[in-house]
């Protein structure tokens, strides 16, 4: 009888241990959580004109680039998202199309533009009416030149940029040509902060003031190419970025210096590719329309 009891208890102990082992094994199973697929965002890069910086030293303080000149690009971009189309910048004024090289008074720049924005959009099957939103990295004349074609689009603009636009400061400043965007009346004012364009983190206007009062960069997270940042004029060419140099004509130089730190911290956080919009080498290396970067 004693032997039976011992056998019974031994068997129960073994069963209990087996159950514990089974539960332990069950609890160590890894739970795989699939990340949601990125939205099917596409980015198209276009040539908005050419800029020869005859006096490159404007892009620095002191005599950093004294006596130097440099060929610059002037790109603009279309971002297609399942929920809409954003136009980022528009290039140089369209009055330049077919006119060859033009050197404004002062001789600091020689500029030209080969093609109109409407012709360029046709290459990807779009008309101006298809553009839902327009945003400028900033409102210097070389970024707003073809904007009046998009009067029906919602214009996303930072409060500080809009305040400057409506101030006395802009009058007589040759870096601005408000006539090139005078048809834009459907404004959405952004309260001097980042703005998630489609609400899913895939396309974000990054508030990076200093070059102008309400300057921006643009973050785009592409499903295949991954995250990238379009600089606006945070930098104008690679050497600017390497040396963290602020142009002497920036609206607010100390603010620009802080923006550079914030820009680099964000790029590092996102492990993002940087495309300097005016850097000719960057533009030539980029996939351009009518082919999309996906």
Automatic annotation (TrEMBL):
The protein's name: MBL fold metallo-hydrolase
SMART domains in the cross-refs: Lactamase_B
Record has Plastid as a keyword: no
Alphabetic keyword roster: Hydrolase, Metal-binding, Zinc
Domain Metallo-beta-lactamase: start-end pairs: 73-278
InterPro entries found in the cross-reference section: MBL_superfamily_lactonases, Metallo-B-lactamas, RibonucZ/Hydroxyglut_hydro
GO MF annotation: an example: metal ion binding
Family membership noted in the UniProt record: Belongs to the metallo-beta-lactamase superfamily.
Organism per entry: Leeuwenhoekiella nanhaiensis
PROSITE patterns from the UniProt entry: PROKAR_LIPOPROTEIN
Cofactor(s) in the UniProt record: Zn(2+)
UniProt KW Hydrolase keyword: yes
């Amino acid at each position: 009888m004693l032997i039976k009891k011992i056998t019974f208890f031994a068997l129960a102990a073994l069963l209990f241990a087996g159950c514990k082992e089974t539960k332990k094994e069950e609890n160590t199973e890894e739970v795989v959580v699939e990340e949601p697929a990125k939205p099917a965002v596409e980015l198209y890069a276009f040539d908005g004109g050419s800029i020869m910086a005859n006096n490159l030293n404007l892009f620095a303080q002191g005599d950093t680039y004294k006596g130097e000149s440099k060929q610059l690009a002037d790109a603009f971009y279309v971002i297609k998202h399942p929920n809409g189309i954003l136009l980022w910048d528009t290039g140089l004024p369209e009055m330049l199309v077919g006119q060859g090289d033009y050197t404004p008074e002062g001789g600091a720049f020689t500029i030209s533009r080969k093609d109109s924005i409407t012709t360029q959009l046709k290459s990807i099957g779009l008309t101006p009416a298809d553009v839902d939103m327009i945003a400028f990295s900033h409102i210097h004349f070389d970024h707003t030149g073809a904007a009046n074609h998009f009067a029906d689009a919602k214009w996303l603009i930072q409060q500080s940029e809009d305040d400057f636009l409506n101030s006395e400061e802009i009058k007589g400043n040759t870096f601005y040509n408000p006539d090139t965007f005078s048809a834009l009346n459907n404004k959405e004012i952004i309260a001097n902060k980042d703005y998630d364009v489609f609400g899913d983190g895939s396309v974000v206007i990054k508030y990076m003031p200093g070059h102008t009062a309400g300057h921006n960069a643009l973050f785009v997270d592409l499903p295949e190419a991954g995250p990238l940042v379009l600089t606006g004029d945070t930098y104008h060419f690679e050497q600017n970025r390497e040396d963290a140099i602020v142009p002497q004509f920036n609206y607010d130089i100390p603010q620009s210096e802080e923006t550079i730190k914030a820009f680099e911290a964000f790029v590092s956080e996102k492990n993002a590719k940087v495309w300097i919009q005016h850097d000719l080498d960057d533009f030539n290396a980029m996939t351009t329309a009518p082919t999309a970067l996906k």
